[in-house]
Amino acid sequence: MSVYLFNTLTRSKEEFIPIENGKAKIYCCGPTVYNYQHIGNLRTFLFEDILKRVLMYNGFEVTHVMNITDVGHLVSDEDEGDDKMELGASREGKTVWEIAEYYTDVFKKDLQRLNILFPDVFCKATDYINEQISMIKCLEEKGFTYKTSDGIYYDTSKFPDYGKLAKLDLEGLRAGERVEFSDEKKNPSDFSVWKFSPKDKKRQMEWDSPWGVGFPGWHIECSAMSTKFLGNHFDIHCGGIDHIPVHHTNEIAQTEACTGEKFVNYWLHGEFLNMGDVKMSKSSGDFLTLQKLIEMKYDPMHYRYFLLSAHYSTKLKFTFEALDAAKSGYDRLLTNVLKIKNSVSEIKTTENTFKEHEKFKAFINDDLNIPRGLAQLQQVISSELSNEEKLFLIYEFDKILGFGFKDAEEKPKDDIDIPSEIITLVENRIEAKKNKDYKRADEIRNELKEKGFEVIDKKDGYEIKRL
Ligand code: AMP
Ligand code: ZN
């Protein structure tokens, strides 16, 4: 069965034909580790996990590479402002290296908690400075760069196809000069490949280079590391949709200018998780982490289920009502799966399972239509099939859905069943206590009691019990 994927480059669904028979080489833009990854970022990593699982399921030998951006990503993707890493370090009174290590570890833990398969290679930008310098040298030799007072820039007017991924209107951009850009830049879309350290300030991360002490631009790390690990021309490159107009556009320009070859065949992009009507973002400060959801007594699988109920290419609005619905849906599904598991001692394949299985494969191979696959799982569970047949299908579908049903066990009810309304009340009570408003704190305690819950204060937080 063929796999079809929506390719941003051609704006169409295409059959996936690998460069090398039976192999799929994927590069995914990883996190910038100056802060926690929010649950929006995790949506993108989950979409990439599904892509990888689907390709593996179809028998491809997948090589999956993900970078860790620990230098060079400035506050604006268009090279304006400070380095996010240095800002993060001063916010926390730690070194850049310390925060990079801390947030990388938390990120990896979140992936694990969400059953997201680890890439074969995690590569940190700071470990591959030489490779980045080599690529900049290559661009310089071919005449694609120029120097300004603050760095070495890529001249986008020299690359004939610049903006092809995003279908950028360069003429419009040049004519209107909508983007504020420094006087020294030749074109608004030009971007830095190497930035000089400021003369008046010592940066924590800086390296010698043929152009002077400084640090690489953000885009060059992905060009240098992806080609290092996957070759000049590879199959799939992924990220969130915000990467289309700048980051991925610039990666293509740099890499193809340097290698003279086509860079990537399929570009896949995950849509945003929105908070209300706006993109969840770290810069807004108002974002949710997986850890926060766990503290609110959601299981990471509730969040996985929530995400899988929407196709990766559609916007998804986060609300606690929707998460609560996903939680109930997942808990019901798990209860049914456990009942089936406990009632049989073996799995069985029949003509019926074959048909259902083919249907499921057609869904997932159709540009990762997981919502349809999930709905099919529900149908199988409530069908007339025997429990042995059902269990075969549950385990097969779960290789893609990734809930870990093979290892799943019954959870104590108390642990999974605290409504979000109660958590909010408990948090309001903590806030009231912080503000020394003990009257309000007591009122909330009583309100909780009326609703059947008791809150017990602990040294490192609180415990909520059903009365
Ligand atoms: P960053 O750590 O900002 O470099 O982002 C890591 C990944 O998350 C990138 O692929 C982004 O495109 C993606 N991303 C950022 N915000 C969101 C969001 N609200 N929803 C889904 N993906 C996002
Ligand atoms: Zn990247």
Structure description:
With 467 residues, the protein is of the alpha/beta class. It folds into 3 domains: 4-270, HUPs (Rossmann fold, 3-Layer(aba) Sandwich), CATH 3.40.50.620; 275-407, Isoleucyl-tRNA Synthetase, Domain 1 (Orthogonal Bundle), CATH 1.10.730.10; 420-466. The chain is 45% helix and 16% strand. It is built from 16 helices and 16 strands. Strands 5-4-3-10-11 form a 5-stranded parallel beta sheet, sandwiched between helices. It has a 4-stranded antiparallel beta sheet with strand order 6-7-8-9. β3, α1 (39-57) and β4 form a beta-alpha-beta unit. The protein starts with a strand and ends with a strand. The model is unreliable at 175-179 (pLDDT under 50). Bound molecules: adenosine monophosphate and zinc ion (ZN).
Write the layout of secondary structure elements.
Elements: E1 4-7, E2 12-15, E3 23-28, H1 39-57, E4 61-68, H2 84-92, H3 96-113, E5 121-124, H4 129-141, E6 145-147, E7 151-154, H5 170-176, E8 191-196, E9 214-216, H6 218-230, E10 234-240, H7 244-259, E11 264-270, E12 273-275, E13 278-279, H8 290-295, H9 300-308, E14 316-318, H10 320-343, H11 351-365, H12 370-381, H13 387-401, H14 413-416, H15 420-434, H16 438-450, E15 453-458, E16 461-466
Parallel strand pairs: 3-4, 3-10, 4-5, 10-11, 12-14
Antiparallel strand pairs: 1-2, 6-7, 7-8, 8-9, 12-13, 15-16
Helix pairs in contact: 2-3, 4-6, 6-7, 9-10, 10-13, 11-12, 11-13, 12-13, 15-16
Zinc ion is lined by residues 29, 222, 247.
Can you give me a brief rundown of this structure?
With 467 residues, the chain is of the alpha/beta class.
